[in-house]
Amino acid sequence: MSVSHPATTDKLPEQRGGDAQRPARSAPPSWLPALRRPRWKVAGGLTGVAVLALFVRTWQIDAFGFNSDEAVYAGQAASLAGNPRYTEYFPVFRAHPMLVQALLSPFFRAGEVDVAGRLVVVALGVLTVLAVYPLGARLYTRRVGLIAALLLAVMPYHVVVTRQVLLDGPMVLLATLTLYCMVRFVQRQDALWYVATAAMLGLTMLAKETSIVLAGSVYAFLALTPGVRRPVRATLLALPVLALVFATHPISQALAGRTETGRNYLVWQLFRRPNHPMSFYLENVPSSIGLLVLLAAFGGLWWARRQRSWRETLLLSWIAVPVVFFQLWPVKGFQYLLPVVVPVAVLAARALAVLPVPARVAAVPRRVMPRARVHLVVRLVAVATVALSLLGPCWRAVSQQGGAHFLAGSGGVPGGREAGRWLTDHTPDGSVILTLGPSMSNIIRYYGQRQSYGLSVSPNPLHRNPSYVALNNPDGWLRNNNLHYIVWDSFSARRSTFFADRLATLVRRYHGRIVHTEYVGGADASGRAVPVPVIIIYEVRP
Amino acid sequence: MTRRIVSVLRRRAGRLVAVAVLLALSVVTATSAAASAAPATPATPTTPIENVVFLMQENHTFDNYFGTRPGVDGIPKGVCMPMRADLPEPCVKPFHIGKLGAIDLDHSADAFAQQYNGGRMNGFVEGVSRAGKDGRMAMAYYDDRDLPYYWNLADEYVLFDRFFSSSHSGSIRNHMYRVTGGPGAAGKAETIPATGWGNIPTIFDRLEAAGISWKFYVQNYDPTITFRSRVEEEDIDRGAQVIWVPLLGYARYVDDPRLFSKIVDLDEYYADAARGDLPAVSFIAPAGNSEHPPGNIGAGQNLVRALLTQLMRSPEWSSSAFIWSYDDWGGWYDHVKPPKVDQYGYGFRVPALLVSPYARRGRVDSTTLDFTSVLKFIEVNWRLKPLASRDAKANTFLDAFDFDAPPRPGVLLSAERTTVALRRPDPRPVYGSYATALLLVGALVGAAAVRGRRRSR
């Protein structure tokens, strides 16, 4: 096999002489002129990608109601907007900064809202897809930018997360802009872009404070790339700018009269027990990003290793630091690694754009097809293959009808919205609900407008999210008629058989009577379609 | 020929008419015979109320529970009850019971007479002291710290502040007024006759005759305890069941399996309410949750809360009325001199509340009422004849309802008086600070982009 056309890299304006990493300048590839098409063709391609991104992100977006995190963020947005349905159940300030919630709040001013909130996040997700294009084009070529945008448009990981009212989708948009600012700084060596990078990172942290880990990526990149100027003076300016932008969070809390929750939450997150095994990300994330995408990204790094430049170092830093950090951090969540999808997509696109074509394949007689055309066709087939390998799982993820199992952050909860609405319609105001865990409790509060408590929330403040209220004695609450309904759900029961058993005991002890059940489609041992109960509501009494 | 045909047709027609008349007569006769054997078709209520629930708790006065509540005829300012009725000093002012334990104050007819003191209403302390107890306790009162749920209910529904116990004596007579409109045994004796209450008619007789459903729900019901098996020594314990459920003092209710089967354990109330099978008239007698001093009033609140919770969750809530009161004053102070309506009553005021989807919100109803007013309401609602002169003359509490308004959905009120409301922070600093941050970052990026373009030129 021979590499037909290695990737090209630009030289930095102030690259030091004798840099071992400095790539040799090579001649532009033969296909590069073909890329320099009129802009409307690029615009057309981007529009197609955006339409595709929008389609898969909105398809059956209302099939299921909010999951727990969505309910909390939407509830915060609604409370901030003064929506009377939610002010009693969701405090404005809980754990995270409020940039996304503030952005969402105008859509949550009245009534029960879920689709509108999701559509806002979808729009931000599509903007992220579009933002990948200039990033890829500036780092490599327009073609790379376009392919990266296409890959991100149908990447199940990004699609699934940006269909939900979560902070991670908007955060990744801002992280992509931060990366873009960083690229501009490196290319221009303009300290203003460096300060703008810091400011944009501060904004990213206002979307979700865990994105502070990307500051580590910036540091790692600067440390590993001697060819890039390290602007010490600009750093002295950039860090205060970052702090000033992020200070919006505590300042807004203080001005609004609340200071405690954020600090408590941070302490708890730092010292809480692991919520998933170490293998969690390995089991869930690669398949969601796409194995062929990962193969292309890292395979491309291998076969184009001789052309390695600051670009790959920057992208790898943007991937490695979050991966290492969240792998080591005890708290794990499906969506936490989402910031890596953009650099992974760009690296994969870069690899596909310069895919080495075996000489045997390229040796088509010129009268049949010119050599450059052969390379183009091969690479187009490769891009189509990778994109289709994403589209299949993506389509399954957005069109599935739900099951009895649920991974937090992977979508809406089947039956949760319907159970909440049933409680609104069929239980008196003032009814108090005991759920198995805090997740269903949040959903019940959002859709049911009923006060609810999770049985599994620990009475020990060191072992619970400070946003949650524990019932020190649920048995006593039931005996004193302070709890009126018990809600069992298969999703929480699967995570904690201990508390599922405890809940069943309380149901028996307090004359539990099934008053409502939510089902999903399932199959019995013979494969026959049967309804599987996922949420059961019991009426209880002392 | 034509005439003959016409006459034949006439004869045949006459026979047909005769057969039809006979058939009609036989149908009418059969129908009327069946009607006389079975109860009459149940009368439809005259109001939207199709289910009445009447609970009787024990031994408190209105002032004892609600005397400090604003907007009611409560404890007058400056009251100081003399230790001895004939001497103004020393005296005891009403005081919050706090952590003092309630005691079972004397609440016999004699105690009433001493406390009433010929209408001077100044013997409350002495009446208890003479029984060898701490008379000052008669002046103790509870408030919303102790009765948060009841006070919350009073905010949302109807509180009666001129509801009197029917008899100025103890439980037996008052419970008989509750079901018969009369005192039961005449004269001074307040006991259950050894042969039972005989043929004194009850409201349940009227309901039976009218074909209207009813049940008597009894907490911790023991069907083996009736007037035949009860011994007076057990009054405070399980024997009180016969006092609080007067039907168990009737041979005809105890011996008739059909009637006896309508006296059931309170567990059935919850099941009936959940299914929407509550009878038209439900009477409830408590056991340990009766609030009878020195019992825990919190347990009584829990019972009422559980009963109301189930009723509000019932399909029948929208046509229900739940009323509860207290069978006598229990020896506690109440400042309102009870009207004298006959030789037995009234006794002192007792607390009474009405909870219904039609109850006026937060109303304090000052109509003069007693236990027979509930009988009167049932009689009016189902067009029944009065049982005795007392219920015939009693006022009803129809004004406490607003039948012009649609039924209100139930509200499960908190057992805490002040619910912790989340204070919504001022959103302006939030919007303002985040908008400022966005503008700042946007300006920086824009400036960098503009400078980059200029340089590239």
Task: Give your account of this protein's structure.
The complex is a heterodimer of chains A (542) and B (457). Chain A starts with 31 loop residues before the first helix and ends with a strand. Chain A has helices spanning 32-35, 39-58, 68-81, 99-104, 115-139, 142-154, 156-161, 168-188, 191-207, 213-224, 232-246, 248-256, 260-271, 280-289, 291-303, 310-328, 341-353, 359-362, 371-399, 416-426, 438-448, 474-479, 490-495, 497-509, and strands at residues 432-435, 451-454, 485-489, 513-523, 529-539. The radius of gyration of chain A is 26 Å and the shape is globular. Chain A has 542 residues and is of the alpha/beta class. The model of chain A is unreliable at 1-25 (pLDDT under 50). In chain A, helix 3 packs across helix 21. In chain A, strands 2-1-3-5-4 form a five-stranded mixed beta sheet, sandwiched between helices. Chain A has 24 helices and five strands. Chain A folds into two domains: 32-399, no CATH class; 416-539. In chain B, strand 2 (81-84) and strand 3 (87-92) form a beta hairpin. Chain B has a single domain (51-400), classed as Alkaline Phosphatase, subunit A (3-Layer(aba) Sandwich), CATH 3.40.720.10. With 457 residues, chain B is of the alpha/beta class. An eight-stranded mixed beta sheet of chain B has the order 9-8-10-1-11-12-6-13, sandwiched between helices. In chain B, strands 2-3 form a two-stranded antiparallel sheet. In chain B, strands 4-5 form a two-stranded parallel ribbon. The model of chain B is unreliable at 1-9 and 16-38 (pLDDT under 50). Chains A and B meet through helix 3, helix 8, helix 9, helix 11 and helix 12 of A and helix 12 and helix 15 of B.
Give the SSE layout.
The complex is a heterodimer of chains A (542) and B (457).
Chain A: H1 32-35, H2 39-58, H3 68-81, H4 99-104, H5 115-139, H6 142-154, H7 156-161, H8 168-188, H9 191-207, H10 213-224, H11 232-246, H12 248-256, H13 260-271, H14 280-289, H15 291-303, H16 310-328, H17 341-353, H18 359-362, H19 371-399, H20 416-426, E1 432-435, H21 438-448, E2 451-454, H22 474-479, E3 485-489, H23 490-495, H24 497-509, E4 513-523, E5 529-539
Parallel strand pairs in A: 1-2, 1-3
Antiparallel strand pairs in A: 3-5, 4-5
Helix pairs in contact in A: 2-5, 2-6, 3-21, 5-6, 5-8, 6-17, 6-19, 8-9, 9-11, 10-16, 15-17, 16-17, 20-21
Chain B: H1 2-37, E1 51-57, H2 62-66, E2 81-84, E3 87-92, E4 95-96, H3 109-116, H4 124-129, E5 140-141, H5 148-156, E6 158-160, E7 163-164, H6 171-180, H7 203-210, E8 214-218, H8 240-244, H9 251-255, H10 257-260, E9 263-265, H11 267-275, E10 281-285, H12 297-313, E11 320-326, E12 352-355, E13 363-365, E14 369-370, H13 371-382, H14 389-393, H15 427-456
Parallel strand pairs in B: 1-10, 1-11, 4-5, 6-13, 7-14, 8-9, 8-10
Antiparallel strand pairs in B: 2-3, 6-12, 11-12
Helix pairs in contact in B: 6-13, 11-12
